[in-house]
Write a structure and sequence with these properties.
Distance between the termini: 179 Å
Order of helices and strands: HEEEEEEEEEEEEHH
Largest sheet: 6 strands, mixed
Shape: rod-shaped
Strand order of the largest sheet: 2-12-10-5-6-7
Structural class: alpha+beta
Oligomer: single chain
């Protein structure tokens, strides 16, 4: 009895179709391009399943100011299909690789009228539940400076100013320390000279004596010498 129940459960599980899981689709957020240039709009997806032979990609386009979207590209059954009546009928090329979950397209010879939002949707059966992803295309005569470049420039200027302030601070400290050292050396030098002068002034001067007394002593000495000679 248990064997029969086990076999029945296996058969039922084999008959029940596999449940689909969510698929995550990725595109860029915003792309800038020049008039007359070409641009690649990337689209890829993540799925827990192996890439199916029935994988599909669809691209739609909504121009700026328009309310409705139009389909411009579809890939299914291993073949790409480009809308032959839309604004990109002669300017859209499929450059993706479905086997690697890449559904990218290439837009050629861009014009101002191509500004708008492109939406990519992908299916990887049985994973067919997922939210489409959109990228906005902006066509300019000259590509504007992006916010990241401006932010990087501001950060660079701020860091440069900080480095300059630090250098000035240490330079001022060095100059002040050098000034204090020179003042201390000059004070010690003046004190040393003052001591030498006082020592020189304190040297005793020998007294020569009274000249008249010296003469009297000399005459007395001569008298004594003459007396000795007479004797």
């Amino acid at each position: 009895m248990l064997t029969i129940l086990a076999l029945a459960s296996v058969i039922l599980l084999g008959i029940v179709p596999q449940q689909s899981e969510a698929i995550v689709i990725y595109t860029g957020w915003e792309r800038h391009a020049l008039v007359g240039s070409d641009i690649r709009l990337s689209c890829s997806f993540f799925s827990w399943r192996w890439t199916s032979d029935d994988v599909t990609f669809s691209w739609s386009y909504r121009a700026d100011g328009a309310r409705d979207s139009i389909f411009v590209f579809h890939y299914t059954g291993g073949s790409p299909y480009v809308d032959n009546k839309g604004p990109f009928r002669d300017r859209l090329e499929f450059v993706g690789n479905p086997g690697r979950r890449d559904g990218s397209i290439l837009l050629k010879n861009l014009d101002y009228g191509d500004n708008g939002t492109f939406t990519c949707d992908a299916k990887n059966p049985p994973d067919i539940v997922g939210r489409a992803s959109s990228v906005r295309l902006l066509v300019f005569e000259k590509v504007p400076i992006q916010a990241g470049v401006i932010t990087g420039a501001i950060i660079g200027v701020v860091l440069g100013l900080l480095v300059l302030v630090v250098v000035i601070y240490y330079l001022m400290r060095f100059l002040v320390a050098r000034r204090v050292f020179n003042l201390s050396v000059s004070k010690h030098g003046k004190k040393g000279k003052g001591k030498e002068g006082s020592q020189q002034r304190q040297v005793p001067v020998l007294s020569i004596g009274d000249p008249s007394k010296l003469k009297a002593a000399a005459s007395e000495k001569k008298k004594q010498e003459s007396r000795k000679d007479k004797k």
